Sequence to fold (261 residues):
Amino acid sequence: MSAKLDHVSQLRFTTLVEAPLTVAFDVGRALGRPWPRPLREIESVRPWCDRYAAAPGGGFRRLEHTRHFSATGAGTLVTEQVDWETVVPDPLGSLLDQTLLRRRIVRSMQAHLDAFAAAAAARALEVIQVVGAALVDERGRVLVAQRGSGPLAGLWEFPGGKVEPGESDLSALVRECSEELGVQVVPQAFLGEVPLDGVVAGGAPGASTLRVWWARVGTGDLFAHEHTDLRWATAEELESVDWIPADRPLLPAVRDLLARL
Fold:
């Protein structure tokens, strides 16, 4: 007869952090993991995921902690997965797991997630965000706007701009479209988020993101108050547009949206 393998277990935890992807990722790395043993980085892809292994001890032969970060309209959804093996083979390994180790992990993770969410929300207040609108008309076309000044003059983008302190993302989106286009827009649904490499409003490089919603024009007539030109583009025309670098990663989501409408 062969001995049974060591007991292997897994738990998943999710929490919604009121912060953009970059802030959630950076705060999570700064806080570390709730395990009182040295950690070894296995993988890290900012701001999408990271994975660490804790040194053996405390009843664990192996403990790995993986985090995945997903953008939503309400903030960043953080999914954390903890995989571990006990030092004791089954059936005693299962008993050790159920009576001690699993409860220890749940308690540690609950405290960790509460601290993580609070710290990320506080840090988000210090970072200026950028919002954009993929405005769609009744013919299934999306509005693109050509920049008229600055280093990206002549390139095309989705209308939008910076979120002011104390302003919500959607309020900023409506305000920016009113100022740039002379129309009141009605946001429909969150479309996606893109990390920005440069400096926004004097902040740290790479701290801000561009968060985009698709929307409809509610009232008013379109006019390019701040852009050189405006035009409506079909899904087939999007690839040929000379986009600013930040907006191009959103094109697959925009094409999918236009195909559904």
Observations:
- Residues 130-260 form a domain with the Nucleoside Triphosphate Pyrophosphohydrolase fold (CATH 3.90.79.10).
- The chain has two domains: 6-124, 130-260.
- The first strand starts at residue 6 and ends at 17.
